[in-house]
UniProtKB/TrEMBL annotation:
Residues 14-137 form the Activator of Hsp90 ATPase homologue 1/2-like C-terminal domain. Belongs to the AHA1 family. This is Uncharacterized protein YndB with AHSA1/START domain. Pfam families: AHSA1 (PF08327). InterPro entries: ASHA1/2-like_C, START-like_dom_sf.
């Protein structure tokens, strides 16, 4: 039986280099990730942190960084008590040129069967990645409210 996972594929009119920068630059992530910023030096073995309103919401370790093709890190949630007990998961971004576009595949796995975390990321990633695509292609955000990150997850 396969383990629970989240997979999202998007085609974005940009370059692999610009997409890599969007995924790894705090200044850029703050724009489309609802104010959150990523922090790391993006070297294998280095720590990764996601900060929202000055608070570390998620952290991990860089497992692979091959700019501008592949980024892979572990991901441990800290913000919501209901999710803190879930195991460390993993996020893989695969960036592939596709004619004048870039194909971005996001794989988030390592979830437990029946856990709440898969539901939480299944709502969050589409909102985040839709904002990313819009920002790269048009320079504008879609206006998705931050509450969309928790839709379907009863976070207190």
């Amino acid at each position: 039986m396969s383990k629970p996972q989240f997979v999202y594929v998007s085609y974005i009119e940009t370059t692999p280099e610009k997409l890599w920068e969007a995924l790894t630059s705090s200044d850029f992530t703050r724009q489309y990730w609802f104010g959150a910023e990523v922090r790391s030096d993006w070297k294998v073995g280095s720590p990764f942190a996601l900060l929202l309103d000055g608070e570390v919401t998620d952290s991990g370790e860089i497992l692979e960084a091959d700019p501008p093709r592949r980024l892979f890190y572990s991901f441990k949630h800290h913000k919501f008590e209901e999710l803190r007990g879930e195991p460390i998961s993993r996020v893989v971004f695969t960036i592939e040129p596709f004619g004048p576009l870039v194909r971005l595949t996001v794989l988030h796995d390592g979830f437990v069967e029946g856990g709440k975390y898969l539901g939480a990321v299944s709502n969050g990633w589409p909102a985040i990645l839709s904002q990313l695509k819009s920002l790269l292609e048009t320079g504008k955000l879609l206006g998705i409210p931050r509450a969309a990150l928790n839709k379907g997850f009863d976070a207190k």
